[in-house]
Structures are given as C-alpha cells and as structure tokens.
Batch of 3 targets.
Target 1
Amino acid sequence: MAWELKWMEWGHAWWTSPVLDQVLPWVTHLGSHVVVIPFVILSWVLTRQKKILGRLVILYALQSAVVYGLKYLIQRPRPATLWALSSALSRGPGEILDPSFPSAHTLYAFMMATLLADCFPRYRFVFYAVAGFVGWTRIYLGVHYPTDVIAGGVLGYGLTKLFLYCIRSLSVKRSVRASDPSSH
C-alpha cells in the first residue's frame, strides 16, 4: 500500500485540476449501479429478447457477488481513510464507502465495455478507453488504490469474457442436440 499512496500523491501533484475536481465526481458514476441497471434494461428494450435480459441480470448478479464477496472478504480500507489529501469526491453525488478492493465501478465499467466490444468490435478501443478512464477517476478521486482498479478491470473483463464463452458453448450444444436426428 505504501508505494500506491506515494504514486497517488505524486499523481495528485501534477494531475489535479479545478475542472476535473468538478467533473470527475460525476463521470466516475459511469461504472456505478446507477448506469449498469439502465444499461441492462436498455439492452433488453433494444433487442426485445427476454433471454438477453435474463443473461444480463445473471451476469450483473455474478459480477456483484464476486466483487462484493472479495470486498468484504479482504476488507481493505479505502485510501481516503489513510490518505491525508482531501478527496474531490465530496463535490459529487453520494458514495457508499464499502471496502476498497477491488473497485466495483471499474469492474462494472469493464463489464459493459466487454459486452459492447463483443457486439460492436469495431469500437472496442473506445469502449475500453472509457472503462479505463472510469477506473482512473477512482484513483484521481482518492477512493481506490491503483491495484483496486487493476483488479476491478481484470475481473470485469475476465468474468464477462468467461460468461460470453459459456453462453456461446451452451448455445452450440443446444443447436447440435436440436439438429441430431437420434435425439428426436
């Protein structure tokens, strides 16, 4: 943790800006439940497929179980409780200060980026850049250590890729079974 605090203090010295202090407390919520839930609902509305809604709810529940299970198992305190520098977060919408590791905002941002990149591969760089930016806002605001953000990004990406792989594998098995004349 010591190296992370030193890195955060170093970064705070050169990247702090009054404009970012006002904007980032709002931007950081692109990875929050306030955005994930409408994302799930909008995905269902746009596709008009109940199975999409079910799959996204399962993925969201899985991601939530993993991230909050790890948070409460590890119990890493937030940097704001250790770091003497004031957090810009107080200027933005409310924040529940659960344990720090891993970053749920980053996890959800990478979950949504991975889903969008799967559907629109041409724009994957943009989706992952936005997710990475959301992760960086968590460090900028002093509410997460860099390793919290890295772990959140890796988990969000990895769990979503694994979920997509499993969904596709199940779909292939079902179609093989449906086309097999001996199964009828």
Target 2
Amino acid sequence: MAKLETVIKEAIARGARRQVRMVVTPLRREVVRLRRKVTELQGMVATLRRSAASWKRMMDASPLTPPVSEEEAKAARLSARLIESLRKRLDLSQLGLSRLVGVSGPAVAHWEAGESTPSGKNRVSLVALRKLGKREVKELLARRAKETASRIARTRKRRVKRRRKRSRQ
C-alpha cells in the first residue's frame, strides 16, 4: 500500500511540475524580453540625457541678448532720460543695470544724470537690452550672478592651494 501511495504522489508531482513548466516557460521568455527592452530604453534615456546636457551647455554659452550691429548702436539715441526709463521698464536698480552692461554702479548713475554717455561695448549692450523683456533680463542677471559666484569660488580655491604650497615649503 505504501508503494502505491508513493507512486501516486510522484505521478501527481510530475503532472504538477509539467503544468507549472507550461505556465512558467512563456513567462520566463517574457521576462527576458522585457529585461532587454528595459536595457535598451535605459540606453536611450542616457543618450537623451547627454543630448539635453549638451543643449543646455550650448544654451548657457549663447548670449541672451539679441545681436546688435555697431551701426545700429551708433544710430540709437541714448539720452539720460531714455537710460533711466529703460532701467525702470526692466525693473532694475542702477547696480543691476551696471552688472548687465559690465560697468560700475556709479557709471550708470553718471549716464542717468547726463554727466557722461555710454560708448563702445556699453552702448551696444544698452541697445541690446532695449529689445529684451523683464523675464529675459532676470534670467540674464541670474546667469551673470552664477558665473560671478563660480569665478569667485575658483579664485578662492586657487588662493587656498597657493597657501598650502607655501606652508609646505
């Protein structure tokens, strides 16, 4: 009787294994296919991220100000009142405008007071700023502040390295 019982149990186990194998084999194939697909998609995402990073670098490198020719800058009227109205329209302080143009704060104050007029690159920058809106100007200011901060950080690192070298010698 014991042998008959074990034979029946083995037959049931064999049948169960066969049934499980019939169900699991296609699932295993599907899992392998899906893993390959995930790997392929991860590669595509990595490529897209690299592409996005290169586009970002390119956009960061390009100026936000529209190009202005020298002739256009020379022909443009830039009176003290116009400079002040431009600054107010863009919602900038004199210091903010000076940072955008690349001059000192007092230089902008002198322009607005009519004591001096911008020339050369400063004039070109002001004419280019006329074509921008508040949003673009805010982005440009943020970018300039970021560049300045990174430049200051690099300078500090160099100073620390020099001090360490001197102290070692």
Target 3
Amino acid sequence: MMNLLYKQCSRSARLLFTVYISTVLVTAAGGPLQADDGPDTHERFVELDSEIQAIKVEILAINRDILLLEELSLYPYDQQLVVLVSVANGSTINPEHLSLQLDGQAVTQHDYSPTESAALQEGGVHRLYTGGLSEGEHRLDISLTGRQARDKAFKHQSSITITKMPGRKTMELHLDSGEGRSEPGVTIRQWQQ
C-alpha cells in the first residue's frame, strides 16, 4: 500500500513540476500575446492551457485516491464506522450544529452553514464521521441544534446502542421536521454492506 502511495505522490510531483515548467516557459516566451503575434503562437497558448487544465483534473483525481488510501490506512475496512447525515424530503428543518459522542467521548462535531443546510434539504448527504470502531456494543450520543419552520429554534438529544459486527458499519442520521410532533426527530438508518 505504501508503494502505491509513493507512486501516486511521485506522479503528482511530476505533474506539478510540468505545470511549473510550462508556466515558466510561457512567461519566458514573451508574456501575454501581442496583437502582432501570429496565429501559431495563439494556438500554442490555447494548447498549453488545455494541457494545464487536463493536468489539474489528474492532480485532483490523484489527491482523491491519496485521501482514500490514507483513510484505509488509518481505519481498516473491517473496523470502520461511517456516519452520514440527511434531511427528509420536504422537511423544514435547518440543522445548525451536530455533535457525536461514542462511548462517552466526543468524536466529531459540525457547524452547518446556510449553504450546507440548503444542500441537505435538496437531497444531499453529508459524511459527518469516519473512524475506527472495535466489534461489540457501543453507545452513540447525538446532539442536534437548528431551526425549523417559522425560524423556531430547537435542540434534540438522543442515545442509541449500536452493535458493531465485522466489516464496515454505515449509519445514516435522517433528520425530520417532526410533522405531528412538537420537536424534530432523528431516525437512525443502518445501511447493509
């Protein structure tokens, strides 16, 4: 795994070096295009720009792969706990702050911006937490604050016991505005792997 990570980093370094050299060459070639420069020069600049854009896309893909490798090295697949957050369709709930405790220890918290809350209301899903968890029973405490219809503030706290089996455990905290109830609620959905 480390060899693969080294190859990815080496490839990324080569791409960054290519972008740097291309930029230096373009600058050394005379800077910006002048009105009397020929069409060949303009075409070369356009070609270089498209090459740089392709390199940027490759660098982003490599960065994503490196992050995934890092996650797997820190939290092997068999010991992973992934917690996702979603909001029910048509819900008026706007989460502002969400925190998780696992077996009495704070593991994560997130303050939602208005843009993130809007994305959740439009069907987005937020990966709140990825971490290691041993097999067995564990207590998960959830604390949520936010606003609902007519800008009414709310606070929700709940605790559940989860059983970790071998393999990755993925849970979804599904937020609902609580139609028919006085306060919003959190439904915990456990995904099958």
